[in-house]
Write a structure and sequence with these properties.
The complex is a heterodimer. A five-stranded mixed sheet of chain A has the order 2-1-3-4-8. A three-stranded antiparallel sheet of chain A has the order 5-6-7, with no helix packed on it. Chain A is an alpha/beta fold. In chain B, the strands form two sheets. Chain B has an eight-stranded mixed sheet with strand order 3-2-6-7-8-9-1-10. Chain B has a four-stranded antiparallel sheet with strand order 5-4-12-11, with no helix packed on it. In chain B, a hairpin with a 3-residue loop joins strand 8 and strand 9. The N and C termini of chain B lie far apart (about 50 Å). Classes of the chains: A alpha/beta, B alpha+beta. Chains A and B meet through strand 2 and helix 8 of A and strand 11 and helix 10 of B.
Chain lengths: ~300, ~350
Amino acid sequence: MNLRTKKIREEARRLLSDKVVDVVLGFAEGTLPLRAAPVIARDAREVDRLVWNSFCENNLARYLRGMRDQRVAVVAKGCDTRAIVALLAEHQLNREDLYIIGVPCEGMVDRRLLARRAPGEILEAQEESNDIVVKGDGFALRWPRAEVLYPSCSACTHPNPVIFDTCVVDPVKAWSDDAYERIREFEARSPSERWAYFQSEAERCIRCYACRQACPLCYCEECFVDHGQPRWIESGVTPNGLQGWLIGRAYHLAGRCVGCGACQRACPMDIDLVYLTGKLNKEMEELYGFEVGLSVEEIPPLATFEPHE
Amino acid sequence: MKRITKQDIRGLVAHLLHDRVVYAPSWAGKFVTFRKIKSPEEIVWDCLVTREPPKKALFPQTEVLLQYQRQPQGLMVQSTENMVREQVIWGIRPCDVRAIQAMDLVFDTSENPDVYYINRRRKTALVGIGCNEPLSTCFCTTVGGSPFTRDGCDLFLTDIGDAFVIEVLTPKGEELVAGFDLAEANAADQAAARSAEEKALARMAPIVQIDRLRERLDRMIDHPFWQEVQATCLGCGVCTLLCPVCYCFDIVDEGTPNYGVRIRNWDSCQYRVYTLEASGHNPRPTGRERVRQRLMHKFVYYLVNEGVLGCVGCGRCVQLCPVNLDIREVLKRIQALPL
């Protein structure tokens, strides 16, 4: 058992038995290789299901608004805590009902990248020190973890929890000191290249809304895309409908996206989504000097206005 | 039983492409899915579970039902129901064929024939292929299928290494291979095909006793299980939209007074707005009712209404659920619940 798992379980057991919280929201072993699954532990028996590994790819902050009737301990990596901060700043959560078990994060492994690289179905996956080892029928492959992380993890500048009640291990060093490297590279392309890329990504969209549902900051009671009167965008899988959806969603996350990449990992069609919100975050930093999810007190620029504006 | 080499079969596909639309597993950027192909070279022969099922070839995600246009002489309304060419779904796996058969029972009925679906369906030939090495996420045998079920196919292929054994099963299948001189499969070919089938079946032990499930589910409508199992569900449409059987749709009019279309789009019972009524009332207000609905429809209501299950065990929802909410585990837990 790795140290993070051990500490998470210890803390979860204590919190439940001392009745500090009603439930612990964390990750359990998944049913497939390279997967973990969100789980809600309600008693000490269920605590032993909690794990921490390179596959804890969901942003658990996404569940917290729906659990406001309970006192919740949440296992949270850097991006999860940034989402919690953003939700607190938008008055969506009560800090006193939350207990944050912070987990310094070494990045999550891109399971689809590995699936593409493997010559057959991956039937087994293990973490061995800093490597990921996968096995299947007639093959065994090994990669350094750092080389097979999700793009949003490779670009992560805040792997350590920014808010917590307890932190299970010492802080880790960030992979990156520049969250916008890829955005700048994209900005350097010609408008026609950028348009072609966006079109080819958008055309795969099946409007399952997994991106929206996985996102901790997409919490509107009624999403613009579900409006019938007026209908803001075409309802079908037409170029207008799909592009309208992706752009509309990205704009609603301007300066609100914590860059966790949960949307992209949830997308069953492997659509590049984080570069859209990343670009808008970059604009927000340049315009307002605002980086989301770092301060509960600072009012998000698009949630306020100055009289002279 | 005939045989065709892996080289010659490309010629057969090229021949079909002359006057038919051919859907086949092929690369769409980062994954393999059913797409219209232009050349046999695009076909990916060894992909068992394509990212998307081929259902859109019969039931497009967005389909124009009619269009209207204001013209000097008045409003011109045009139906689109007869605008489909002959098509082939090439390399469809037995689970996806069973899914189409399940959809037939919904759309192709004497009381409520869906002309759009039926028109496509009648013009579609299915070329099935057996699954020599089912994936770990496959569970077709649990829900009454098998990796080599031929039922519903017009042609059926079995990969025997350097060649395919090809079985012509229907008059439609005969049309597809008309003019092609197919060699008879010899005893060794037939033995190889049988062996492939036996090996595949040996890997596919059922995971639950499906015939006992319905009776349990019938007694579970108010069980606390649903509240618990839905707790981590995101409420997205991945499991339903990428399900080969799920057929729900919504009809929408889009346009201006001068021009517009009536379209139908796939819909999903997992969406909040799916059951939202104009009054604001929602009979399935939370994830509990919506997750339960999906399971109940697949394993009870489909059976009651159509006589077959609404799940074919392709495992796409298992592979693609963003939170690894695995339907196989849900079924196992239902089987083990003390009721």
